[in-house]
Design a protein that fits this description.
heterodimer; A: mainly alpha; Helix Hairpins; about 70% helix; elongated; B: mainly alpha; three-stranded antiparallel sheet; globular
Chain lengths: ~140, ~280
């Protein structure tokens, strides 16, 4: 197999893996809570890309029944002409839920900032250790 | 700590990249993900519900339970944000008003008398954003109606083209957030109040769950829209078609208002006096 053929058949997975670990690194190693949230969002985006790239089919069109197929009986419709609709559905809801979870996460970050007046994790830990309870 | 994280990440990255050979090739028609269940959807949506957009049919009909609880999750995220952040704005804070005919900015502190809320001469402005913003105001004023019509189109044509409740709802919410960003938060609140946003989010979830419960009342299982045949006065296939549409409207309403509600709470950190 030619080298470019290998690359063409697998590079979507490489992109998703690299994005996924970029996000995971952000969640694990960064000190700032907002940077952690950005990492989490990159992670979610990589999973969405993974699902959507799994649903792709060569020469397949978007999962909307075409005019010519509309009046055919179900046995004559060739499912290989349409991209896999199931990952699209899952990711459609996942995108909206990820926005909602980001909203809750930002609300928690605001709450943390109100109490400890910082978003740096080591400073928060130091303040907790020294018995700081905040003003709010 | 950072070196440990880096080593772990690089190790896992290597393992994953190595294992990527086992994934199906890109665009493979016979990959496991597209060979068991998904051909059924492509073959049967027209027969079952007359909806050409397979994604809409799966979203609201075949996987109706999933979507109902996704909507509930979005609604509870809005609620969680509200309970975490909402508080009364501080009374001692001074407010800024612009006198429109002269362009003078007036600062009113504690005891001072405020102009009435629908005054045409004085307009409340944020303390962080004082310049007169003619271009932004006019541009958004002309853009917003078209974007809203497009959002309604996306909701209504979810059966025939890419779209549906989630997408249309987010676009509709974007227009109101755009309005609140281009003026100020108070102007946004005057258009869609917090009460309207929260109540219609609950109504959106209620429409969805109510359409499901209606099916129980009419003698079928939960979310089986065939039961709504007599309500819509059609045959069982078209009943599914209309059932999907009702559910999409519920989703659109819930998503729109929850997004707006999240924006109000996050941008003003729960005080609702002035935002971004």
């Amino acid at each position: 197999m030619e080298i470019y053929e290998i690359i063409l058949k697998n590079y979507n997975y490489w992109i998703f893996i690299i994005l996924m670990f970029t996000g995971l690194y952000g969640v694990i190693a960064k000190n700032n809570i907002i940077k952690k949230l950005i990492g989490m969002n990159i992670f979610q985006t990589s999973i969405i890309l993974f699902y959507v790239s799994l649903s792709a089919k060569l020469d397949g069109t978007i999962p909307i029944i075409t005019e010519t197929d509309k009046h055919k009986p179900d046995t004559l419709i060739d499912a290989a002409n349409y991209m896999n609709p199931l990952p699209h559905v899952l990711m459609l809801t996942a995108i909206v839920v990820s926005v909602a979870t980001i909203g809750v996460a930002l609300a928690l970050a605001i709450k943390v900032y109100r109490t400890y007046e910082t978003l740096e994790e080591d400073e928060i830990r130091r303040k907790i250790a020294s018995g700081y309870t905040g003003e709010n | 700590m950072k070196t440990f994280a880096r080593i772990t990440i690089l190790f896992c990255l290597g393992v994953f990249l190595w294992q990527s050979w086992d994934f199906p090739d890109w665009g493979d028609k016979d990959s496991p993900a597209s060979s068991h269940l998904s051909p059924y959807f492509a073959k049967n949506t027209m027969k079952d519900s007359h909806v050409p957009n397979i994604v809409s049919a799966i979203l609201a009909d075949y996987r109706g339970f999933d979507t109902m609880f996704e909507t509930a999750v979005v609604f509870s995220a809005g609620l969680a944000c509200f309970f975490l952040l909402r508080r009364k704005p501080p009374k001692t804070k001074s407010k800024y008003y612009r006198h429109l005919p002269t362009g003078i900015t007036v600062k009113i502190t504690g005891e001072g008398k405020e102009p009435s809320k629908d005054s045409k001469v004085f307009r409340q402005i944020d303390s962080l954003w004082t310049p007169y913003d003619l271009i932004i105001r006019k541009t958004t004023q002309y853009i917003i109606p078209f974007v809203q019509i497009f959002a309604l189109y996306v909701v209504a044509h979810g059966h025939y083209s890419p779209g549906g409740g989630f997408q249309g709802g987010v676009i509709l919410a974007a227009t109101i957030i755009l309005f609140a960003v281009s003026r100020n938060l108070v102007a946004g609140l005057r258009w869609v109040s917090e009460k309207a946003a929260s109540v219609s989010a609950a109504i959106g979830v209620f429409i969805y769950a109510g359409a499901g419960a209606m099916c129980i009342v009419l003698g079928k299982v939960f979310l089986n829209y065939e039961a709504l045949m007599e309500v819509f006065g059609t045959d069982s296939v078209m009943a599914r078609y209309y059932g999907i549409f009702v559910v999409e409207i519920g989703v659109a309403l819930a998503v729109t208002t929850v997004m707006i509600w999240l924006y109000y709470n996050l941008s003003s950190s729960g005080k609702h006096d002035e935002g971004l």
